[in-house]
């Protein structure tokens, strides 16, 4: 639609220029007189001629009226359509959204708001996380906007769209497009734009997982595989499955699982779990330690020493986790 408006304005300006130049050549008129005559002719306001017209001038005026009225009518109709259909409002909203996104940093990006992507968006909303959603479906983007998300209408496989979403400043990218080839391309492009980006990719088949990891994905999930395993767990270990649901959902539950990173200045760094007494002081449980070297201690003992840049997986109530978070950030 914007292209049509541009064409309409260009046609109208071309007619004005042509008429002005024509009167200057045919009648030897000044620029102002020629422009004035062209405007009143195209607008059909019914004013008298600026100067007497020669037969050639009269024929030129007839042609200018026919062409000018058509150009004016087309331009007016296009502009009215532009306003009525909300394109102007859409452009203003798009400009506002781009300004919002340009001010974001350390945010998340969701590529694709389909069945999987929409669930991801809801989860991020529940956590109050800042994210930018990319999709070509206007209805999906409208729903995301209603939830307060920043959105971009476009193809996530397009590098310029990822740049517009602030991928170079983002913390993570989650690509949930329907095609494995598209997810692979998004992963590869995003990794090239931001080497520090944490990328989670969706795959439709297990055979694609290795390719996505080679392309730069930090984590690869296959919904069908995860769903099948989860169903098996529900049948074989229903109590365990219910417990995991309890601690991994944040809506109206007592306990939550959280991951916390220990900064270099943390008072917890360089001390053992026994020495820290985290359970006694905060009430939270340390379930696992992901070391800065890349290892995972899934059952840390009391003599396990925490180090700077380690990540601890903890379980507790929101109040207990908040108390622990304060200690994690406290300086030694």
Description:
- By secondary structure, this protein is of the alpha/beta class.
- The chain has three domains: 2-84, Orthogonal Bundle (Helix Hairpins); 105-221, Rossmann fold (3-Layer(aba) Sandwich); 254-329, 2-Layer Sandwich (Alpha-Beta Plaits), CATH 3.30.70.1450.
- Helices cover 55% and strands 14% of the residues.
- The protein contains 14 helices and ten strands.
- Helix 1 runs antiparallel to helix 3 (55-84) and helix 8 (180-193) runs parallel beside helix 9.
- The chain is elongated.
- The mean pLDDT is 86.
Summarize the structure.
By secondary structure, the protein is of the alpha/beta class. 55% of the residues lie in helices and 14% in strands. It has helices at residues 2-27, 31-43, 55-84, 87-102, 115-127, 138-146, 159-164, 180-193, 206-215, 223-236, 238-248, 273-276, 278-282, 318-329, and strands at residues 108-111, 131-135, 150-153, 172-175, 198-202, 219-221, 256-261, 285-290, 296-297, 311-316.
What distance lies between the first and last C-alpha atoms, to the nearest angstrom?
A: 60 Å
Mean pLDDT: 86
Considering DSSP H and I runs of 4 or more, what fraction of the residues is helical? Answer: 55-70%
Uncertain residue segments: none
Strand order of the largest sheet: 3-2-1-4-5-6
Percentage of residues in strands: 5-15%
Overall radius of gyration: 32 Å
Instruction: Report the major sheet.
Output: 6 strands, parallel
Structural class: alpha/beta
CATH architecture of the largest domain: 3-Layer(aba) Sandwich
Secondary structure tally: strands: 10
Spell the H/E element sequence. HHHHEHEHEHEHEHEHHEHHEEEH
